[in-house]
Design brief:
Layout: H1 3-11, H2 15-21, E1 33-37, E2 40-44, E3 54-58, E4 65-69, E5 73-80, E6 82-87, E7 90-95, E8 99-102, E9 108-110, E10 118-124, H3 126-138, H4 142-158, E11 160-163, H5 170-183, H6 189-216, H7 225-234, H8 240-246, H9 251-262, H10 266-284, H11 289-295, H12 301-312, H13 316-322
Parallel strand pairs: 2-4
Antiparallel strand pairs: 1-2, 3-10, 4-9, 5-8, 5-10, 6-7, 6-9, 8-11
Pfam families: AraC_binding (PF02311), HTH_18 (PF12833)
Organism: Lacrimispora algidixylanolytica
GO molecular function: DNA-binding transcription factor activity; sequence-specific DNA binding
């Protein structure tokens, strides 16, 4: 399947859509389950199947979906056209190329869609999203961890995140490939699908980070993001005082900012960065343990062994022996 045949497949009206277009609207009350939200009975629409990584569904056009909840996270991607999303009574318009992430158990509804309004929903178990992907991405760098923690806070506060991704070059490429693989599975279907999903989530983290950085990049508000980038680059030799001096701020204030925005003190961020670099060198090089320790900023080999064992609960050689190379 290619992008052209994918577009034809998604544009073709299903029998349900033909019925809805003729005015035969689906009766959601038929065999419906309800959840008590406040003083209202809200439809409970479950469409996630246990055992599957995630489910892809095309939203049926020519009808509205009433306020409802479900036990899975919903990621809606606007393949073409536009669609209203009503979340906790607030109306948002999802435009072509944009994505909205809606947390589980969040009351939301979908507005009426015309023939060109094609929306794709990814239905994902929250544990799968957090454990398999967000935790994996957050280990890549302190920047990724910062943005993912911010995304989680925003989701917990608003129950959704809107990604203004219409101008993203990569997102439509990743989504098209994911949809082609889903609708026309290859021999390595599961592996390819999971990795394409990682790319989608990674790009959403990038988009969120870019938007957040723009909001913080004002003269009246100090942005923590350049500090995190500085730590990632200079973790071998930097100290709290040298970092504070570089950004012309008080060391105590820097400590407060880091703790507030990342949940970690300066030393812990440096340690995580050193251990991440050590992990990569152990897996991907033949350098000796002593050479690796020196490369990541440790002159005292005994201290390096101590910190490594505290972090990974094994010795460097044991870690290297048990981890396959990439």
């Amino acid at each position: 399947m290619n992008t052209q045949s994918l577009s034809i497949l998604l544009s073709t009206l299903t029998q349900h859509e033909l019925d809805y277009k003729e005015g035969n609207i689906y009766d959601f009350s038929k065999n419906a389950l309800f959840s008590k939200i406040g003083n209202e009975n809200i439809y409970r629409l479950e469409g996630y199947h246990e055992g599957e990584s995630f489910v892809v569904k095309k939203n049926s056009r020519f009808q509205k979906v009433p306020p409802h909840v479900h036990s899975f996270v919903e990621i809606n991607y606007m393949f073409s056209g536009s669609c209203e999303q009503i979340i906790n009574g607030k109306t948002l318009t999802l435009l072509e190329g944009e994505i909205i992430l809606i947390d589980c158990e969040t009351v939301h509804a979908i507005g009426y869609t015309n023939e060109n309004d094609i929306m794709i929903s990814l239905l994902i178990h929250k544990g799968y999203l957090n454990n398999t992907f967000l935790n994996r991405l957050s280990n890549d760098s302190i920047i990724s961890r910062f943005f993912i923690n911010a995304m989680n806070r925003k989701t917990n506060h608003n129950n959704y995140i809107m990604f203004h991704s219409a101008n993203s070059r990569r997102l439509p490429l990743f989504m098209n490939e994911l949809l082609c693989e889903y609708y026309s599975p290859s021999l390595n279907f599961s592996e390819i699908l999971n990795n394409l999903f990682i790319l989608v989530i990674s790009e959403l983290v990038n988009i969120f980070g870019h938007e957040m950085n723009q909001k913080l990049d004002t003269p009246s508000q100090f942005s923590i993001i350049p500090v995190l980038k500085y730590i990632e680059t200079n973790y071998k030799n930097s100290t709290l005082n040298s970092t504070a001096l570089f950004f012309n701020i008080n060391p105590n204030y820097l400590t407060t900012l880091l703790k507030q925005h990342t949940g970690y003190p300066y030393k812990e961020l440096i340690l995580c960065q050193k251990m991440k670099a050590t992990q990569k060198l152990l897996i991907n090089t033949d350098m000796s343990i002593k050479e690796i320790a020196h490369a990541v900023g440790y002159d005292n080999l005994t201290f390096f062994y101590k910190k490594f064992k505290e972090h990974f609960h094994c010795l460097p050689k044991e870690y290297r022996d048990q981890k396959p190379s990439f």
